[in-house]
Every structure is written in C-alpha cells, then in structure tokens.
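Shipment paperwork, digital attachment
Item: protein structure file
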Amino acid sequence: MRAGNNNFIFSIAGAHGVGKTTIFSILEDKYSKDNTFKFYHERYIVKNPTYPLGSIKKEIAFRGEIFFLQQLIKRNTRLKSYLKKNNNKVVILDRTPICVLIYSKALEMVPKDYKLIYDLYKSIDWVKKEHIIYLHADVNVIMKRIISRGRLSFKEQNKAEIQRKKWHERDYDYLLKVSKYYNEFLLANEKKNKNLSIIDTNYVSPKDVVKNIENIIFTISNYSLKKKLEKFKDIKNFL
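Attachment content:
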C-alpha cells in the first residue's frame, strides 16, 4: 500500500511450503533490474538462522523467533531509510512482520515467552500501510509441495531433508497450527482490512500466481499505466 513519498509496499505472506519463496524469487528475477522495484528478503541480514526455526523445543523455539524478529527489525530499519530517499517505488517484502506472531503462536510457547515477543513486536515502529498478499492453500496440498519441492541433486536433496526435519517442516500438526493462526490473524478481519489480498494457490501454477500478484501490484500502484505514459513521452520526444 502507499507509504511515504508515494512509495508502495507489498508483503508476500503464507505458511512454509505454500510456494512463497518460489513466487518471490520469480518476481525478483523478473523485476529486479527495473529501478521502480526494490526487493527485501525474509532474512535480509543473516542468511542462516542461529537457531532452527520451527523447533518444537520450547526454549529453542523462543530463541528462533526472537532471531527472526531481530532480522525483520533490521530489515525495517533499512526499508525506512530507503523510503525516505526514494519516490514512486514498488517495494516487495518476503513475509510481513506479523508472521513472527503467527509462528510463535503455532509453536505453543509458554505465555510469558510469547508475551515478550508480542511486546517487542508492538514496540517497533513498523513501516505503515503495507499491503499483504496472502498465499493460501490446503494443508494437504502444502505437505505435497514440501515433500516434492525443488529440483535438487541427490546430495542437495539429502541436505534439504535434514533441514526440513530440523525446522519441523514435515510435521502435519505443526503446519495445521500455522495455517490456523494465519487464518486467525489475517482472515478474521478480512472484510475490515482493505490492505489484504488473498490468493488461493491450490492446484494453481506458480506462473498464474505471479500473474495474480502482478495484477494486484499494478492495480494499486498504477505502475503499468505509468510505464505506458513514459514510453509515449519518449516516443513523442524522439519525434
């Protein structure tokens, strides 16, 4: 949604395995060379988590989500600095900060640990008027994607499988809880929240999901119209 200096912020959110990272990567590959677009990854500062995200061990789960929140806070600082210096940009984020609360709930932390994360989350001056694009799919569909995703070599596949177990990704009940809290945090106020778009990705190709996201982004930001006007202006000047 429109932020300071006529910039537009879009966050792509969804449970692990829904295809969020794949969609974000396709958009980044397609538009990163366009100066109108700016992309910010989920773990913008540190690529590898200090603690395994999604651990069912309560103390590690707490540390993992604190780490995740720390990354988003640092990303938010960079983002605010970028917005102050730029105009008419389309910013696309991998995940929205509220994802920290969703995953913290799904990990069933002890109340005092969740409250600490929640209080820290509430204390941050997050970039306002962000438009969330929520990628939704049935849990059974997501599980199939988690099991089959990625064209990896045998060695890479084994490495990825170790990480999936470490991050608790193949746990059906855990994924069910994550989906439940996404619905609770995002869909419960769907009618009131104008800054939310929901894309059903069940049996939909990544290409078609990207088209849907492009329609949302271009409609809100008027990006395609601006590009047409710029092209017309260039042709007119040439003539």
